[in-house]
From TrEMBL:
InterPro entries on file: Aldolase_TIM, DUF5598, N/Namide_PRibTrfase, Nicotinamide_PRibTrfase, Nicotinate_pribotase-like_C
Domain Nicotinate/nicotinamide phosphoribosyltransferase positions: 180-452
Gene Ontology MF annotations: nicotinamide phosphoribosyltransferase activity
Organism: Deinococcus yavapaiensis KR-236
Protein name: Nicotinamide phosphoribosyltransferase
Length: 466
């Protein structure tokens, strides 16, 4: 039997290798006399007019506080040279030995959870050792990934505003209900475990409901949250259909008896066969008295069809069977039951569902949403047009502005200068200085990282408060 020798495994934890291939040649491309480089991160526009900044602390704590070792440098040298790229071996080995593996960088950023209009500097990066200006570009690949949690947090923030408006119009206690109105169903729909963790936690800067367990781990380990979110028992199609269609009502009865405790909530997907029949015959007739007597709240989940039409039908059918009360704002509230829509949920369908329900005189209190791929996966770097660009340098001892200004796309003109973000009369403004020693007295940015150490640690509560 022929056996093949396997190549040596490349380390999963080698910080140096988490970059783009072409970065390895850039140390040979910068001006020979360059000693400093300054770069910044911004949203150049996109779907939303501002961003809610989040996730940098995770990236820095997870990756940038580790120490570069000589073994990492040797491995990176072998990989890049075999890959066809030059490699700054002496520079990285100096970091690993003389600097004790600490990255000679300073990173400043707006406090996480801050809401900042587009076209402003959210983060700045510069080298603290004149020998390593190329390192500022090397780490772009990792640092720019903050676009993902920031974009998720931003989208979630905008949807929260939609839900708040509906609740303020139709609910008695909007602020009590709001944190649980958009539940994260996205873990299975993302590209990786890490995406589930930091993306799921980004959503939780705005809400308290989630089925993404990875977000709980990320919240506890990197943002000091003992419990970042909450959930309730819920059925899936398999736990209903294994009873067989002839015993569908028995599957529902089992849910009541397992989870129908006073004050509790439990969700049951009810469209495995016929949603309307399930509501009218099973829930609303056979099991109605048991549902109400349990003291718990049954949450019926449609899972197919047009979201607005299905939720509207479900709410009206449940109202006919379980009855309603009228709240102080004149809207109807279902007795003992609610509806959660978890299929086809995105920003526009949420608006459509709320409009359909409220136009029928029902409070937004009756409906909750579960959002999956559209929440954590259907975003990309261009959703908010994130960019990380160099803006200033020191070459041969002299300050030099750095920018690009492509004739073919004026929207991609980058800023120049040593940038800072300030709050001027309640408005954010990016300042462009012409020195590497600017006055930062009124800066809205904080130095969060320097020379291998994380200097600021926010809790999830801190982020939510902003």
């Amino acid at each position: 039997m022929l056996t093949l020798d396997r190549p040596a495994r490349i380390s999963d934890e080698n910080f140096i290798l988490d970059t783009d291939s072409y970065k390895a040649s850039h140390f040979l491309q910068y001006p020979a006399g360059m000693t400093r480089l300054f770069s910044y991160l911004e949203s150049r526009g996109g779907k939303y007019p501002y961003t809610r900044f989040f996730g940098l602390q995770y990236l820095l704590g997870r990756y940038f506080t580790q120490r570069v070792t000589p073994e990492m440098v040797e491995e990176a040298k072998d990989v890049f040279e075999a890959h066809g790229e030059p490699f700054p071996y002496e520079g990285w080995m100096t970091i690993a030995t003389e600097l004790g593996g600490r990255l000679p960088l300073e990173i400043r950023a707006v406090p996480e959870g801050s809401v900042v209009p587009n076209h402003n500097a959210l983060m700045t990066v510069t080298n603290t050792d004149d020998r390593f200006p190329w390192l500022v570009g090397w780490v772009e690949t990792q640092l720019l990934r903050v676009w993902y949690p920031t974009t998720v947090a931003t989208q979630s923030h905008f949807i929260k505003a939609i839900l708040r408006k509906a609740l303020e119009q139709s609910a008695d206690d909007p602020e009590a209900e709001l944190p649980f109105k958009l539940h994260d169903f996205g873990s299975r729909g993302v590209s990786s475990r890490e995406s589930a963790g930091i993306g799921g936690l980004a959503h939780l800067t705005n809400f308290l409901g989630s089925d993404t367990v990875e977000a709980l781990r990320c919240g506890r380990n990197y943002y000091g949250a003992s419990m970042a979110a909450f959930s309730i028992p819920a059925a899936e199609h398999a736990t209903i259909t294994t009873w067989g269609q002839a015993h569908e009502v028995d599957a529902y009865r089992n849910m009541i008896r397992q989870f129908g405790k006073p004050g509790a909530l439990y969700a049951v997907v009810s469209d495995s066969y016929d949603l309307k029949r399930a509501i009218v015959e099973h829930w609303g007739t056979t099991l109605r008295d048991e549902v109400l007597a349990s003291g718990a709240t049954l949450v019926v989940r449609p899972d197919s069809g047009d979201p607005a039409a299905m939720v509207r039908m479900a709410v009206n059918a449940l109202a006919a069977k379980f009855g309603t009360t009228t709240n102080a704002k004149g809207y109807k509230v279902l007795r003992g039951v609610r509806v959660i829509q978890g299929d086809g949920v995105q920003e526009d369908s949420i608006k459509e569902v709320l409009a359909a329900v409220m136009n029928d005189g029902f409070s937004a209190s009756n409906v909750t949403f579960g959002m999956g791929g559209a929440l954590l996966q259907m975003v990309n770097r261009d959703t908010q047009k994130f960019a990380y660009k160099a803006s200033a340098a020191v070459v041969d001892g002299e300050y030099r502005p750095v920018y690009k200004d492509p004739v073919t796309d004026p929207g991609k003109r980058s800023k120049d200068g040593v940038l800072d973000l300030v709050l001027d009369d309640g408005r954010y403004k990016t300042m462009q200085h012409r020195t590497f020693q600017p006055d930062l007295t009124n800066s809205a940015l904080r130095t969060v990282y320097r020379n291998g150490d994380l200097l600021v640690t926010d809790t999830l509560d801190d982020v939510r408060a902003r």
